[in-house]
Amino acid sequence: MLAMNIKKLVKKEVSGLQAYNAKELPCRIKLDANESPYGFSAALKAVGGLKTNRYPDPEAKTLKGLLAKDLRVGKDSILQGNGSDELIYYLIATFGGPVLYPVPTFSMYGIIAQALGEKRIAIPLNGEFDLDLRNILSEVKSEQPKLIFLSSPNNPTGNCFSSEKMLKIIENSGCIVVVDEAYQPFASERGFLPLLKDYQNLVIMRTLSKIGLAALRTGFLIADPLIVNEVNKVRLPFNVNSLSQAVAIAALREKKELKSFIGQIVSERRRLFKEMAKINGIRPYPSEANFILFSVNDPKKAYASLLNKGILVRNMGDAVRGCLRVTVGKPGENTAFLRALKEIRF
Ligand code: PMP
C-alpha cells in the first residue's frame, strides 16, 4: 500500500471541522430529530410506475408547480434542494462569506461555511433568545457579510425572532438574508413569504422534512427569480431524485391529512409545555416549532435516565448549557415522555 499523509492533503478548513453528528441510537420512542411522528404511507403508492432507468426531472417541474400554487408565487421563484441542508450549501457556494448567524441556531450554517472556507460571524442571542440587533448591525457594518441566516422559528430555542428586528436586518444589511422557515408550519405567525415582493435580498427556505417527509430529503427556497437563477448555477443537475419527487407530489396533494397532522402536533406541543412546566426542576421554553427546549437540573442524568426508558431526546449541552430538546411525538409517546420525566430523581 502506498501510504500517504491524507490529513495533509485535506483543505485546512475541512480538516478542522467536526462532522454533524446525526446519532442513530436504538430507542422505543424517538423524540430527538424534529421529525413528524406522522408519515404518508399512502403517498408511496405514487412510485409504482416509476422508471428507474431514467434520470429524474432535473427541474422538478410538477413538484415546483404544486409548491408555487400553494405558496402563491411564480415557479421561477422556487429552487429545489436535496433537503434544505443542500440549499444552505448552494447559497454559501453562490454568495460566499462572511456568513453571519445568531447562536445558538441550526449548526449547518456554520459547518458549511467553514467547509467552504468562508468566514463565520456568530452573534449570541439575547437573554430572551431574540436577536441582538445592535450587535448584529454593528458586525454588518464592520464585517460586511454576504449572507445572513435567521432560523425563525429558531432551532433549538423554538421561538420566532422579533419581526421588527428581522426587518431592520433585511433593510440595513446590504446582503442576502435567508429566513429559514423549516418550522413555519407550526408557528402562529405567518412568516416572511408575503414580504418577498418588497425585499429583493430576502430568501425564504422551507422543507418537507418536518411535516412527515424527512426521508425524502426535499427542501426548497423561494426568492426573486434573479437569485434563483444564480443559485441554480451551482445546483447539481439531478439533486432531487424521482422517488422523492413522486412521493412529495402525492403527499402534498393530501392537504387535509397534512393540515390535521400539523394541528395535532401543535395541540400536543401546548399540552407538553403545560405539563412540563408543572414538573419541579424543569423549565420549558415557549415554542412555535415541533419541539420544546427545556432546562433541567442535571441534563446528563436526565438524558441518560430517559434513554434508559427507551426515550431518545437531544442533549443540547454544547449549544445551550443545561438544556435538552424534545420533539413533539404522538400523544402516547408524549405521555410516556412526561411520565419518565416526572420519575427522574435529581
Ligand atoms: N433548517 C433548520 C432550522 C433545521 O432545524 C433543519 C433540520 N434539522 C434544517 C434546516 C434542514 O432540514 P432538511 O431536512 O430540509 O435538510
TrEMBL record:
A matching Pfam family: Aminotran_1_2
Domain of life: Bacteria
Location of N6-(pyridoxal phosphate)lysine modifications: 210
Transmembrane segments: none
The Aminotransferase class I/classII large domain, residue ranges: 30-341
Keywords: Amino-acid biosynthesis, Aminotransferase, Histidine biosynthesis, Pyridoxal phosphate, Transferase
A GO molecular-function annotation: histidinol-phosphate transaminase activity
Cofactor(s) for this UniProt protein: pyridoxal 5'-phosphate
Catalytic reaction(s) noted: L-histidinol phosphate + 2-oxoglutarate = 3-(imidazol-4-yl)-2-oxopropyl phosphate + L-glutamate
Gene3D superfamilies found in the cross-reference section: Aspartate Aminotransferase, domain 1 (3.90.1150.10), Type I PLP-dependent aspartate aminotransferase-like (Major domain) (3.40.640.10)
NAD is among the record's keywords: no
CDD domains from the UniProt entry: AAT_like (cd00609)
GO BP term (any one): L-histidine biosynthetic process
InterPro entries (alphabetical): Aminotransferase_I/II_large, HisP_aminotrans, PyrdxlP-dep_Trfase, PyrdxlP-dep_Trfase_major, PyrdxlP-dep_Trfase_small
Pathway where this protein functions: Amino-acid biosynthesis; L-histidine biosynthesis; L-histidine from 5-phospho-alpha-D-ribose 1-diphosphate: step 7/9
Record-listed E.C. numbers: 2.6.1.9
PANTHER family (alphabetical): HISTIDINOL-PHOSPHATE AMINOTRANSFERASE, HISTIDINOL-PHOSPHATE AMINOTRANSFERASE-RELATED
Assigned protein family: Belongs to the class-II pyridoxal-phosphate-dependent aminotransferase family. Histidinol-phosphate aminotransferase subfamily.
Subunit structure: Homodimer.
Protein name from the UniProt record: Histidinol-phosphate aminotransferase
Native source organism of the sequence: Candidatus Sulfobium mesophilum
Gene assigned in the entry: hisC
